[in-house]
Write a structure and sequence with these properties.
It comes from Mariprofundus aestuarium. GO terms for molecular function: 16S rRNA (guanine(966)-N(2))-methyltransferase activity; nucleic acid binding. Pfam families: Cons_hypoth95. The chain has one domain (about 25-175): 3-Layer(aba) Sandwich (Rossmann fold), CATH 3.40.50. It is about 30% helix and about 30% strand. It has five helices and seven strands, in the order αβαβαβαβαβββ. It has a seven-stranded mixed β-sheet with strand order 3-2-1-4-5-7-6, sandwiched between helices. The protein is globular and about 45 Å long.
């Protein structure tokens, strides 16, 4: 897997073989960042980080910071090794925790962009906005990747501005209703 754009473009990302790991394909990543536009100087919260490729793409494209939350210790060890090898220690934080516990640790914090790629068809998509509200975590935009077979039910206070389908994956772009 390669980083598709920015200062880290072309770097190869070694991803451990972990059951259930489903890194976001290059086509979907490129589409996502084309839709988002510039991410320069933005802060990213990467939930269900897995391979870390979304945080790395954002940092490569100029994001000021990224915080990845992943519960699998093998994956977070790999992410930490990449962070050191690629000299991203100041810009990229990595936490080993379930998303629920990770969000509790971040209570009250604000991010420009939150990206979440939870395990498909397990109900996390519907719950994520509620967890953000519960912990007072702010964001300008929330993007959730989910199976195209799932029609999420968004909680009150959130609106889905658009959804884009790419094969079996759909990207949902949400924001809070003012």
């Amino acid at each position: 897997m390669r980083i598709t754009a920015g200062s880290l473009r072309g770097r190869v990302l070694n991803v451990p073989d972990v059951e259930g790991l489903r890194p976001t394909p290059a086509k979907v990543r490129q589409a996502l960042f084309n839709i988002l536009g510039s991410v320069e100087e933005l802060s990213l919260l990467d939930l269900f980080s897995g391979s870390g490729v979304m945080a790395l793409e954002a940092l490569s494209r100029g994001a000021a910071s990224a915080l990845s939350i992943e519960q699998n210790r093998n994956l977070t060890r790999n992410l930490s090794a990449i962070r050191t090898t690629w000299r991203l220690e100041e810009a990229w934080q990595i936490k080993t925790a379930t998303v629920e516990k990770g969000l509790a640790m971040l209570s009250g914090q604000k991010f420009d962009l939150i990206f979440a790629d939870p395990p498909y068809q397990q109900g996390f998509t519907d719950r994520l906005p509620q967890w953000l509200d519960q912990h007072g975590i702010g964001c300008e935009q929330l993007v959730i990747e989910e199976s195209a077979r799932v029609e999420p039910l968004w909680p009150a206070g959130w609106q889905c501005k658009q959804s884009r389908r790419y094969g079996d994956s759909t990207l949902h772009f949400l924001s809070r209703i003012a």
